[in-house]
Amino acid sequence: MSYCVNCGVELDAAAEFCPLCHTPVYNPGRPIDPRTSKPFPTQPSVVPPASKRAVSLLITAMLASMAAACGLLNLFLRPNRAWSLYVIGAAAMLWIWIVPPLLLRKMPLCLKLLFDVCAVAFYLYLIALDLHGSGWFWPLGLPIVCWGGAILLLLGLVFQGGRSVLTTVTLLIGGIGVFLLGVEILVDQFLLGGWTPGWSLVVLTICIALIIPLIVVRRVPSLREEARRRFHM
Questions:
Q1: Residue 136 and residue 144: Cα distance in Å, rounded?
Q2: In whole angstroms, what is the distance from residue 114 CA to residue 77 CA?
Q3: N or C: which end of the chain has fewer CB within 10 A?
Q4: 42 backbone φψ class: left, alpha, beta (φ>0; ψ -120 to 50)
Q5: What is the separation of C-alpha 209 from the centre of its chain, rounded to a whole number of angstroms?
């Protein structure tokens, strides 16, 4: 058995170079036999990626089997309570989130967000059915979901052109503050019949307090470069 003169690793009889340090192998007492099979592949092989349709079918089968199994268990375990609706709704929501965008790569952003909002609304509706809470779903749950979807759509349209990290963080913080403000307005309107300013203004004030320094950093080149260097952005 031969050994590499550079790193000392043990060499195969068919090795033409060291597999560790790539030093050429030269042994006058034991020439390389080209007919001997190589100890490792000489040609790189590429594993073909799985088709999107196959992945979609696999995800669909997994989610459908999980939902069906929980539905059957619900018939035998606590049949007086439709707890399986939570699992079925979650499976349906995940399917809508994953499979259509996987199959339709060029799906418009508005259509994708519409699917996402419908999935969340459907899940909440199933929860409302289990809790006999359709009275809160239509005037409260659905408007909150639609409000969040509208903010996500606006942010998605803004981010489509490509934004810096500082701009992205600024917009996200602002979007969170506006969303929570709308949530409090809808909740107060549902419970009290009108909006009473409260915790959402505190959150919105904090968001604004965070946004102002970010805008200053974004506008001042020296601060912007220092932030990029410090946070590796």
A1: 11
A2: 35
A3: N
A4: alpha
A5: 29
Statement: residue 37 has pLDDT above 80: no
**Each residue of 180-193: pLDDT tens digit?**
999 999 999 999 99
Measured in residues, the chain has a length of: 233
